[in-house]
């Protein structure tokens, strides 16, 4: 044990020593004079690109404009959002349901846009929940989370939700080996190699985007990290990086860094489909939530699934193949042609680039060096296109500009390196501030990159912005990549952790049927109130349903009496406005919940259990008109068992004139 | 009733007609060529000003840099924040406690910086919670919420937390009349005029910033809206705008807009202090939470207060005076000299400016036009310095540049108007996009404005940015005010609702003892683990306390066995790092809570009640090193009553070598 520990420390020390010697020489802050005008978007003008950035540990997704770096919206996904009532309103609560019950948070790493023919199509963005494994789909007509599906037999859904070239599937590979959900997981942790397994989920995406787990592959308990689908000639294959091929269960920083090579696993998913068709899949018990948003009722629905189809890739020998890859690979990136697969070993000092054509030939000739827990291991040299030499230290992730160039982030040496895909020659390098993780080129992981900009998403900030105490913003850096040399244009701070991102030209999304408000006549919410005259308050036992409307600048009703302590009061507010950008907000003093932020034409529900006798108040929280401040109301709360009759009104409950 | 309704509609129609005719002629998007370079802050360079912007209905406060408009941080205040664990960790939960219990949200409107001698001093920012009335104090050494105090006898704490010139007090005036908390509030709502009252709280601020309600003034149930303290010559006075002097209880958009004039109320708080000293205050029962953050234990403490001292301003005739002000006044802004008080009647088409000197003379001579529910009403003309004629429509709020100029926002006509405080002449006007609420000049409500920039915080966005579905970002606009004419420089989107803001030169804060990390030797958290060797797991009945450490790149312990279904497991994580910007995150699969984000030297606690037999995982959520991905661990959960012994380890629980 001690020896292994010392060896690992020695390796790490070596890496850091190398780091010192390979720090780029041009690591200055120099920005040429035209950068200001290149990133400035004048008031009222539009950005060129939408940039969808994961919030990382915020659990949300944020939308930026490029090149300005301005944040246009945070879309709540996996975490509750008091601002919009996400996870607090009765309609949104089911979206955060899981097999563990309601969970108010997750860790969202990788946004991936839907594709058609390998090109970004602007319909949806998928994003993974890492902690309690899930995938969400966001609808880009409404900029709203439309669906969330949980993943059984998994923990740490990291290598997700990457996508096939016609959005046939999004995938999810477990980062942590775990006992299967329906096995007896009460086993000693140090029986990891026997009792723990990894699973990869292939989630089918329907025409309207609806998700369903088509099948899972059972695999040895390595830690899957990232993935990318083949494209063009390699369509039908999927590539996953994995580390911890040691299958260590403790102190992984040492014990999962023992081997010189881990793997990129190639999955022949067309073959897997055949096996499924041939009935080789085993239907196993499982429990996972499938939640979706119903636009007609403005409400989420949560269903619990009971089984999943599993293929054992260790038994069916020709679905998966292991390609050796130095060392603890992170990125696993397929170039626009589909021929080249770049592996980024985060503890390596070179970048291996594999050839799809050579891989097929090696599989054909069974050029194996052995097997790994039943999975054939191809010979490194047989699959290798070549290695990028001395790219820097700690390669993590590569994207492409569509002009034959690749751009790889170097975490340890804090730089981005541009290299030629075919010749593997390093063409340029720029420093990043500091410790870059992923990078993003618009369309840079598709068949048709849009190029122009590259954004580095950094992990460490330190002194880059005005200090804000111990906790600092995380940060992105925008580069112009139109010339031979990369040009730093802008540092822009982000919300949460900008883990990974996608981007698309603005017109692809803004001209694609953007919804500006919801039509009130199409509202099928069971508690909708389609006009002020229909507003009412109905008691049903200790449940009280308030059918309320909001318009500039009053609620109807705005005086309510006859509520009793301990009642379950449901305020169902229908925003009657039929114009863009006229939400109303709604809150109740002392309610143990957040506000509602109700879009025009929508109905939302706030649940309140009054605990005190007296008068409570409600008001509009979203400044809606010159008389917004007057948009308020009173609720009289009487003691339990009180005989105060239930009454409600607007404008008529005036004192008698004296 | 019908007549009053029609009259109100007629008034509103007139206003909108006038709006059409007074739209500024220069309402183009024209931005002169140097704007880009004026707002560009090159990578690695610092912004000139910190801009503290309320999140409005997000309940938080955000920190921007000016002139870049880049958001540097969101500081969680009144709302839970899954990203940082605010309101989820055991340590932070007490901060959101109230007399109603734990509340996960509020509506935060007005940040106000602490002052010394009437000048911004960079120590703290106060901000109000509107919905469940509270005031928070944020510490600018740590950029963290340090204290929250609840306000009894109140609802809708809007005119808050404005400040006296040596931070003697922050104030809070209720926006809604309510029955007192300990009165019988179960009264018909239409007895509003008899049974409902307004209260204004004077909250004493101690040397370390600690808050305590010194006294409340009981007042007729008008709706207090905004306020500002006197300064210089008018130190000792406080001014509050109020609307709904009609004391209407329903359909306020009509019924609270009946009178041509409402009031600005002048409060002689030095006089109130005398009455308190003389024992005129009545100690009344009350229940309100006082929560503060203990930096030593890295934990919040919540105490429940039981009484409050009340002065009845309707009985004690010489504390408060009403100054008539047209119409439904919002802003109530005192110029840097302390002589002039600008009232902004949101339904008015002029801006009355009152004179402090004339007010004193009028009080001295009892130049009253009568009384309002026992409060003397001064004659309008006797107090008036003059009126700004035709400033635009819907004046809301005024700040000052320290050069004799005032800048007033016009909500209805969407513009900002610059005028001369003494001559009352309009000097310039610029359009805003759209419907501006508050504006902000750095130091612009203090004795020493810093000038240079003015920011408009707008209420409506529409087409100003790339569309994002029905819900749009809210927005700010930055203007250069160094010349005679205001120059629009930049539109920047904001998070939440940018209701109001403050700003200070960067050096005032960044050179004022910024905390970069917490010293581990000063950590007095009861469950601190000061070194990895001290890490342990202790069972106490069904409570299990995990004393865990985090360092790059492992947790200790990282293998835990002997946990049982239904246990209350407390993970107390101490981040042992002692460097800036090395937080670690912590999350547990399936836990019904958010992550922890633990600053260096800090201890935070995640509570988890396992519900399933099997293996759970935890990992670091904040990318901390090249081996961050390896920073993880396993917990074995056995059935209730299981005899699996409690064990814990790091690096040693390896399988026996075969």
Short description, anyone?
Chain A has 658 residues and is mainly β.
Outline the low-pLDDT stretches of chain A: 5-29
CATH superfamily of the largest domain in chain A: YVTN repeat-like/Quinoprotein amine dehydrogenase
- The CATH class label of the largest domain in chain A is Mainly Beta
Largest sheet of chain A: 9 strands, mixed
The portion of residues forming beta strands of chain A comes to 35-45%
Average per-residue pLDDT of chain A, rounded, comes to: 94
Helical percentage of chain A: under 10%
Radius of gyration of chain A: 27 Å
Number of domains of chain A: 2
From the 3D structure, determine the CATH topology of the largest domain in chain A. Methylamine Dehydrogenase, Chain H
Pfam families (chains A, B): nos_propeller
Protein name (chains A, B): Sec-dependent nitrous-oxide reductase
Signal peptide (chains A, B): 1-22
GO molecular function, one term (chains A, B): nitrous-oxide reductase activity
